[in-house]
Write a structure and sequence with these properties.
The C terminus is likely disordered. The chain is built from 9 helices and 10 strands. Strand 4 and strand 5 form a beta hairpin. The protein is about 50% helix and about 15% strand.
Length: about 210
């Protein structure tokens, strides 16, 4: 298997290694990403690397108990299987993710944007209106959620997470559909909307399996 890396150029070999590392770090690679400052679409070089060397990467990750999946509809490569580290979210981060999904759904249905844009201010409004986030969250709680969503290719922001302010644009990718389904949203809104005191005793929620 590893003789394959000796048959490609040094530069190409390094790109393959970095792409595999990215897959294990963030579990998915998008074909097109959006420049956080200009919203201009740009091709993702790591996606092209996955496409060119798909067979090798599939064989490599299979040894580690993973499977490389190409989602032609969402235009992403992603890892699944027992070898993929499952990310656990705190309850607060999970609810923020749900709010982001609501915003994404509303903007896609209403505006049909390729990269729907939101802000912390709008997220707070959605959270309050749905009763998913009835209380004021700390800066640390917001940063934790945004960092994880950025790491897993759910959002993009200009600059660092620590510099995000109320009106900083936050761009939402369609990969959010991998983690939260419409059914999950409706069920949780109903549950938490009627009995918000249950939020204090709820346990950590694991990301939805990408295959569901």
């Amino acid at each position: 298997m590893f003789t394959y890396l000796e048959e490609v150029s040094v530069t190409e070999g390094e790109q393959i290694k970095k792409t595999i590392q990215a897959l294990f770090r963030q579990t998915c690679i998008l074909q097109v990403k959006y420049d956080p400052a200009t919203l201009a679409p740009r091709d993702n070089a790591q996606y092209e690397t996955c496409a060119r060397h798909r067979s090798f990467i599939e064989d490599y990750v299979s040894v580690l108990g993973c499977e490389l999946i190409h989602d032609s509809q969402e235009h992403i490569f992603r890892l699944t299987g027992d070898g993929v580290q499952t990310e656990k979210l705190s309850l607060t981060a999970t609810l923020i993710l749900l709010v982001m999904k609501l915003i994404y759904r509303d903007k896609i249905m209403g505006e049909g944007l390729n990269a729907p844009v939101t802000t912390l201010k709008e997220m707070r409004e959605y959270g309050k209106n749905t009763n998913l986030i009835p209380d004021k969250l700390t800066v640390v709680q917001w940063r934790e959620a945004l960092y994880l969503m950025r790491l897993h290719q759910v959002i993009d922001i200009p600059g660092a997470v620590r510099d995000v302010e109320d009106d900083t644009p936050v761009y939402i990718y369609s990969t959010i559909n991998m983690y939260v389904t419409a059914g999950d949203i409706n069920a949780l809104i109903e549950e938490y909307g009627e009995e918000t005191e249950e939020l204090e005793t709820a346990e950590e929620i694991i990301y939805e399996d990408a295959d569901q």
